[in-house]
Amino acid sequence: MSNQNNYRFQVNLSGMINILSNHLYSNPRVFLREVMQNAVDAITARNQLETDYQGKVHIELAGSGANSTLIIEDNGVGLTEEDIHEFLAQIGQSSKRGEAAFTGETTFIGRFGIGLLSCFMVSDEIVMVTRSAKGGPTLEWRGQPDGTYSIRTLETDLSAGTKVYLRCKTGSEMYYEPQELERGLYYYGALLPYPITFNDGTSSKVINDYRPVWIQEPDLARSNREEVLQYGERLMGEQFRDFIPLRTASGRTGGIAYVLPHAVNLNAKRSHQVYLKYMLVSDKAENILPDWAFFVKCLIWTDELQPTASREHFYENERLEEVRDELGEAIRSELMRMADYDPDRLQHIIQLHALSMKALATEDAEFYRIVHRWLPFETTYGRRTLGEMLKEHDHIHYTLTLDEYRQITHVASAQSLLVVNGGYIYDAELMALLPEVNAQVVTERLLPEDVSMSFTDLTPQERKEYYEKTRLADMALQRFRCQIQLKRFKPSELPALFTLSKESSDLRSLEAAKEVSTDTLSSILGSLGSTMQQSAYSTLYLNLDNPVVGRIFQPGSEEMMQVAIEMLYVNSLMMGHYPMNKQEMAVLNQGILRFIEWGLSAGGKGDSL
Amino acid sequence: MSTPIDPEILALYREALELPDSRTKVELLEQAVRIADHQGHIEAGYMVRSELVEAAIFSGYPRKAMIHYSWMLGQYDQNPQAYNQHNLLWSYKWIFVNAIDFPEISREQLQELIDDMRVRYQAAGYSDRTYYSNLYTLHLYVGELEQADDYMKLVLQLPRDQMSDCSACEQDELVDHHIILGRHEEALQAAEPILQGTMSCTTVPHQTIASLLLPFYHLGRTAEAEDYRSRNYANIASNRDYLQSIGAHIGYLTHTDPFLGLDLFERHADWLIDHESIWEVMMFTMYAAGLLRRLSKEKDVHYQIRLPVEYGYTGDKADVSTLADYVLAQALDIAARFDKRNGNSYYTGRIYQYIRETEECN
């Protein structure tokens, strides 16, 4: 084609602003962050031209309510007319020079040339008066939300810098409230190393009046404990009682990890407050610490990470990975140090945040070795730390699942058998790993039927005496793939202990589902079930120490034997909340009727049981 | 029927929802289901099972998922107004894909499942795209690769609808497709948006990156593979759903760091004992066999392999080549079961081919 015409996409600016406000930025408040960002970048740029220069930002609120005007003034590098056309008129153009803007590292935070546009969320017109530090006239730029702008040269000669004027847009009055502004300015700029002043129309004050020494040198935080805690409360609105200073080897990332004063669950949002070049970029950064470190909420300052377009997270790149590992290491090594020098403090953290500690311990054997004594577990002796358990035991049993634990807990406690419930997240893994970090301990997974090891066997005499009856009882339950074992065990109030394999438990659910499902899926479940049969078995331990069981096995009870055993079986199912199939339900119903009948006829004879 | 739900059920349910996908989460929900069933509270049983099915799928318990999904579908058919149809039909896809992993489920049964799904999707107004996508998956995993290729092309021509997998998952399927067909370059090309981070979901990029390690190696791009490896491993190491992916790590380490590979094999061997997906077990075992054969060529190393008793290997723990034979036999055993079901010799062939290729590289 020889007749080629080139056209340009027309971008609807008001549409863009709508997209920005609704999707990219989490709320209109961020306009304040964006104008401050521009001021900070302008100051940084001027700093590179003149080394002995002191930056400052001044914010002034004029008028009130719907008549408010906000003026943001900086003494930074300012803009020439050429700069204006380049940076303010082209969306997507990196705001502040250099090809590295979109990719690698930049000296400037704002990177997308869209920052100023966010002001249209709260103002119908943006007026900017600027003069470049490189010379040239004072310029006035007026931008409209429809995408048009005008520039004119002003007669007056300002000193270098930029002033942005925003006039309150109807409906945006709340963003011009003095307290709201002051709070926002502090929020975004608390850590900036030069003064941010705010004049609310009556008086002027420095927003970031106090900048702690430990921002530069996080290790100094240790000797300024109260101050660090107060600062945390002021910035993050939570009362903390403990913290860990953070610092990477390069010193380019530092911070304070505040220990949360309450327990948190594993899925809780991790939201850290992160400052890039001392300007807040995110208060919900999630990916800056390792996953296990969910027991802290951090203030982090860095000059080496790249925020994503929304400025609320960081790009997952190698740099971030290194920083994350180093910050994780800072927390980990502090915890390890505590184990030696301040064990009470560590114990306190573990008590509140056992889950977080366990998460790290599963990944990190060295850490596990150091802290294992303090980690709490649920046991048949109640909640116990490993240290407490190890004082009296060098052989610890644990179950793999909650259900297995539930099956045996009652009996195991009665036998004074120490069993750890490994069903909770990380616990079985930690139990399995324990001998690797403490050579004095043996841990062993306990299957429900293993509890019977501590049961008292029948004497040879008793065995002979009960042989036939035991056979009879066993036959009664054969059709349920359940076998009978006659033993003596504590507590004697318990007539029977029912244990079943994981497969057996699954097979029960499968059979229950098969009864209600569609033809297609029932047939599939049938196939699945066929391969589970061989490993699906259960055992009913009958307790000869229990008076009722004792009577069942007395001579003369043959007639009731089968029904009694069946009833003990279905009763165990009910106690364990196991789903019953049709056959078992039928056994239950018939059994109840039989017993009523017996009861009535016995009652009729005046002979009570 | 809206009797209030037992507080104990609700407590277990809430506790479970606070956990990431894991054995504990599955178990808490199972316990809640048991109480609901015991009380005959069908609505509660359904509510808890919708979470249970999802948690089971993403924690590596496909059999439990199938069992409880079957119950839900049965209840839904009896009382369709009471439940959310979209969610139920969405989960059906997981059930189908996972059913292929059980050799005891016949081809006819799988076909019935696909047909049943199609009828339900059509009745709900969804397109046939998912139907063809299921046929694609079926052919790919039973080793009918040409048909799979054809269905893949067909699926990509059809417009996506609400029942289509998320775009990250679809891209991952495409990557996998190329890898299975040995098209490494294409696989890496297709994986670009996933590696860049512009496409992601629950399982992507984790499973994608694991599958790409060997292709990276074969293309001589080990440095890139190394960039991803350890972080990827950290992301999948504690979830049984990723057994095959951990196998893929072992496959890669066989060439680059076999003793680290051995460490991974030992660490995850206990998953093999009772993993519900025998297909995942087979794939992991195949990679492990390749690794152990490679290790058996090392001279002057006194091995003392750590394996759980229940794993069933009774031979000498110092004799890696006997162990390698044992492990390979395990993989081939499972492969034979799949081949019988599938009516071909695809998996047996694939295992032998993998072992051969691994040895040619060394």
Structure, described:
The complex is a heterodimer of chains A (609) and B (362). With 609 residues, chain A is an alpha+beta fold. Chain A folds into four domains: 13-206, Histidine kinase-like ATPase, C-terminal domain (Heat Shock Protein 90), CATH 3.30.565; 213-346, 2-Layer Sandwich (Ribosomal Protein S5, domain 2), CATH 3.30.230.80; 375-452, Rossmann fold, CATH 3.40.50; 457-501 and 537-604, Heat shock protein 90, C-terminal domain (Four Helix Bundle (Hemerythrin (Met), subunit A)), CATH 1.20.120. Helices cover 40% and strands 19% of the residues of chain A. Chain A has 17 helices and 21 strands. Chain A has helices at 13-24, 30-49, 81-87, 178-189, 225-236, 318-341, 343-363, 365-371, 386-392, 402-414, 427-437, 460-478, 502-516, 519-532, 547-552, 558-575, 582-604, and strands at 57-62, 69-74, 123-131, 138-143, 149-154, 161-168, 196-199, 204-206, 243-247, 253-259, 272-276, 279-285, 296-302, 376-379, 382-385, 395-399, 419-421, 442-445, 482-487, 496-500, 538-543. Chain A has an eight-stranded mixed β-sheet, covered by helices on one side. Chain A has a five-stranded mixed β-sheet with strand order 9-10-13-11-12, sandwiched between helices. In chain A, strands 17-16-18 form a three-stranded parallel β-sheet, sandwiched between helices. In chain A, a hairpin with a 5-residue loop joins strand 4 (138-143) and strand 5. In chain A, helix 6 (318-341) crosses helix 7 and helix 16 crosses helix 17 (582-604). Chain A is elongated. With 362 residues, chain B is mainly alpha-helical. Among the domains of chain B are: 1-83, no CATH class; 237-362, no CATH class. Chain B starts with 6 loop residues before the first helix and ends with a helix. Chain B is built from 18 helices and no strands. The chains are: A alpha+beta (609), B mainly alpha (362). Chains A and B meet through helix 10, helix 13 and helix 14 of A and helix 2, helix 4, helix 6 and helix 13 of B.
